């Protein structure tokens, strides 16, 4: 490719996927394919700043459907959940993109329209205290793979939640803390920093330390 600028080929911005570079009067323009199938050419800075996110079809859809007026949900938590879900999968600048879109996780075609997502959410027990969770962590955001759970449940489902085995039972630190009445940070420090066994970590009183002295936790 005869382009002296940073190669954007293959990168995705909104509904646009970059397919090639064109130089016009020393400035880089990028030919992109829109999700709707159209081809459009966009200046690199407009792509990176998020000024241009489609071939123009988004604006056309919004005008046609009266987007902001049709559902009246723009300022709700459910609408924020929808926007955040899409950002995780579609926006390379999102802090969470690497764990979602970067791994190939997508939002299904049906849920690209908020009204469809809202209809599913309200018929599947949504409330503002819940958050969306994928049943298969390697699967996409789609009706058959999603459910609403509490933030605590989502935390317990995280892949980095540390498990402790004591007295023949394996639980997360959070579950041991709830069961024993010990603080989460106390159990975490005993296992992760002081090397205590599972049994010691969930039974010793805070002012005791393996080997004598104070554990400081």
Report what the structure shows:
This protein has 217 residues and is of the alpha+beta class. The chain folds into three domains: 12-58, no CATH class; 69-157, no CATH class; 163-203, no CATH class. 34% of the residues lie in helices and 18% in strands. It is built from nine helices and eight strands. It has helices spanning 44-48, 57-65, 67-71, 77-90, 114-123, 151-157, 173-180, 184-192, 198-203, and strands spanning 12-13, 16-24, 27-34, 39-43, 131-134, 146-149, 163-166, 169-172. A four-stranded antiparallel β-sheet has the order 1-2-3-4. The longest helix is centred in the middle third of the chain and has 14 residues, at 77-90. Residues 208-217 have low confidence and may be disordered.
Please render the helix and strand layout as text.
Blueprint: E1 12-13, E2 16-24, E3 27-34, E4 39-43, H1 44-48, H2 57-65, H3 67-71, H4 77-90, H5 114-123, E5 131-134, E6 146-149, H6 151-157, E7 163-166, E8 169-172, H7 173-180, H8 184-192, H9 198-203
Antiparallel strand pairs: 1-2, 2-3, 3-4, 5-6, 7-8
């Amino acid at each position: 490719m005869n382009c002296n600028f940073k190669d954007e080929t293959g990168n995705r911005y909104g509904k646009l996927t970059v397919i090639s570079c064109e130089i016009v009067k020393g400035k880089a323009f990028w030919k992109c394919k829109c999700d709707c199938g159209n081809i459009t050419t966009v200046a690199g800075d407009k792509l990176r700043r998020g000024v241009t996110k489609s071939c123009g079809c988004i604006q056309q859809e919004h005008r046609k459907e009266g987007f902001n007026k049709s559902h009246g949900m723009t300022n709700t938590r459910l609408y924020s959940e929808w926007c955040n879900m899409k950002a995780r999968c579609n926006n390379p600048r999102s802090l969470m993109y690497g764990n979602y879109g970067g791994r190939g996780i997508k939002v299904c075609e049906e849920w690209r329209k908020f009204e469809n997502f809202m209809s599913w959410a309200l018929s599947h027990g949504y409330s503002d205290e819940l958050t969306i969770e994928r049943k298969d962590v390697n699967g996409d955001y789609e009706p058959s793979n999603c459910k609403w759970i509490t933030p605590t449940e989502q935390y317990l489902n995280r892949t980095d939640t540390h498990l402790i085995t004591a007295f023949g039972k394996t639980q997360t630190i959070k579950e041991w803390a709830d069961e024993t009445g010990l603080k989460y940070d106390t159990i975490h420090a005993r296992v992760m920093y002081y090397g205590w066994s599972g049994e010691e970590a969930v039974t010793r009183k805070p002012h005791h330390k393996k080997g004598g002295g104070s554990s400081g936790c």
